[in-house]
Amino acid sequence: MAIDHLLEQLLDRLRHDPDLRRQLAQLLFGRELAQLADQLAELASLVRSLAESTQQGFQLLAERLTLVERELATLRRVVGDLAEQQRATTAQIAALTDRMERVEGQIAALTERMERVEEQIAALTERMERVEGQIAALTERMERVEQQQAATTEQIRLLTERMERVEQQQAATTEQIRLLTERMERVEGQIAELVAIVRRHTDDLAQLRGWYLEVKARDRAPAIFGRWMDETRVVTPTELRRMVRALFTREEIGRLMDADIVVTGTIDEHPALPTVWLVVEVSVTVDQSDVRRALERAELLRRVVANVVPVVLGDQVTEGARTLTEEERVVVVRNGHIIGWQEAIERWVTAA
């Protein structure tokens, strides 16, 4: 009876206290808890119906105990049924108690979850405040950018006007450049003609310089080589031809006659007074080809006479030619000075 009384009070409070039902519904989230609430409502209705039936039964039992003795068996049967129902009710209450404990655990978990949600909401609120501050700063920057954009637009308009003026000036400049290009093409043609003329004159001057140097060397050969030889003289082409015509072919005679100068004399410092023949190649700038020609023509003349020395004479001597003369012991005459005379005599003059 105490349990019935408590259940009646609980159900009565749930029926008459909407705030309690609302709080319980707010705490019970999810489909399962909603179904549990419905089941609890149905259970309350059943308990209430059971309590009313039990009360009516007790009243009828009291009346029937005073009236008829014979209904005792019936009453006992009814009491047995009621006892069985009471045991079933007790079992249901125990089951409900377990479910209520689970519900309380779920409520505690939901409460903790709600606390975490509230903390997250507080954090989100703080972040929103920061975002709002950033939005305000961005709004201010956008206003400044819009102002700068307006100024930039004005500058672009002014630049556009300037570019139009520049394009007009460019068109005029392009026409001037075209005219200047035509004039430059004509000038370049004239310069090319002048270069060709100067090149021809340069070649002519170089040829004249070479002839002059050869004539000068031929005239001064006795004076140049007279410091080392006695009875120094220039061999004429006629004399040279008579010397070799019996032994040389026409081709060989022609190659030897191409020598610029042939000089002969005796070395008076030697007791044997040997006769020496100098085959001289003359060039304004002596290069390796001049040295090789002097060696080749000296080798030809060496087939007829002994003691033939190759000589090169010029104003300038290239580095390659200087190295070759030192290796082959060829005499170099530059600006009247003789270089390598003693080394050449030791190699080419056998009497020495």
Write a short abstract of this structure.
The chain is an alpha/beta fold. Helices cover 75% and strands 10% of the residues.
Question: Topology of this structure?
Answer:
Elements: H1 2-16, H2 18-27, H3 31-67, H4 72-225, E1 230-234, H5 237-244, H6 250-257, E2 261-266, E3 275-282, E4 285-286, H7 288-301, E5 308-313, E6 316-317, H8 319-328, E7 331-334, E8 337-339, H9 341-348
Parallel strand pairs: 3-5, 4-6, 5-7
Antiparallel strand pairs: 1-2, 2-3, 7-8
Helix pairs in contact: 1-3, 3-4, 7-8
- Our estimate of the beta-strand percent is 5-15%
Q: Helical stretch count? A: 9
Distance between the termini: 162 Å
Mean pLDDT: 81
Total count of strands = 8
Broad structural category? alpha/beta
Largest sheet: 6 strands, mixed
> How large is the radius of gyration?
69 Å
Ranges where pLDDT stays below 50 over 5 or more residues in a row are: none
Shape: rod-shaped
Number of domains: 2
User: Helicity, in percent?
Assistant: over 70%
Order of helices and strands: HHHHEHHEEEHEEHEEH
Strand order, sheet with most strands:
1-2-3-5-7-8
